[in-house]
């Protein structure tokens, strides 16, 4: 895979690459943006080291790839599009501690997310990513046919109610099998973090099918695992990946910032089709 301005070193045959040759703390030129768009399409999640960002520069970076989408939980006072992610000895829950895609409870889920970490535990705190292309491709033809045309409800209370039980969270319906708007590939689009049930199935059958699919996406053959360094960045395509923040470092501190990027116009209609 040839790029003009960057180098990509794949982590696995199916998902993930380390990107070098670009300074994310500076404004990007059109050729760099085009290369990074292509790298996301090629690898689904891309990683960078030694990129000391702050909320303002992280926001500027995200805006190179689209409008920023507000999160269901509050952002920073001065930068409402930027969400602080912080875990320490007082944490009872951490963001992303089960497999999920970000904000699929929204009518139009984000195209992607960019996470920057500045403070890390002495050991642990990795993030695992799973390819939903690979997950879909590994299903039998009979299971693919069975799932085609089904829709599922994604409820924000499942993911965020533990942080604020009184909050009002979005609920949306999406197809169980989605077509990626850029690559045209089919992906599995249900996740344990947000999906409550499949609409066209009775409750017991819906739960059994979802339990199977949740186990299926955790297959190590679909995954890469990223070991963070101070000032590392992860940029993932939310439409074709799931991820898991591995909370194995309690009571140590893990802290950084994240932005979400809106999907391309019209995707809410495509999802509802």
Could you give the topology of this structure?
Layout: E1 7-10, E2 17-20, H1 30-43, E3 45-48, H2 55-63, E4 83-87, E5 112-119, E6 127-131, H3 132-137, H4 141-147, E7 151-155, H5 156-160, E8 171-175, E9 177-179, E10 186-188, E11 195-198, H6 203-217, E12 223-226, E13 232-237, E14 241-245, E15 254-261, H7 267-272
Parallel strand pairs: 2-3
Antiparallel strand pairs: 1-2, 3-13, 4-15, 5-13, 5-15, 6-12, 6-14, 7-8, 7-11, 9-10
Characterization of the model:
Residues 9-258 form the TauD/TfdA-like domain. The protein has 273 residues and is of the alpha+beta class. The protein has a single domain (7-272), classed as Double-stranded beta-helix. The chain is built from seven helices and 15 strands. The strands form four sheets. A seven-stranded mixed sheet has the order 1-2-3-13-5-15-4, covered by helices on one side. Strand 2 (17-20), helix 1 and strand 3 (45-48) form a beta-alpha-beta unit. The longest helix has 15 residues, at 203-217. It is globular.
- Spatial separation of the terminal alpha carbons: 33 Å
Instruction: Extract low-pLDDT stretches.
Output: none
Q: Briefly note the CATH topology name.
A: Double-stranded beta-helix
- What is the 3D shape? globular
What are the defining features of this structure?
Taurine dioxygenase; 27% strand; 273 residues; three-stranded antiparallel beta sheet; alpha+beta; Double-stranded beta-helix
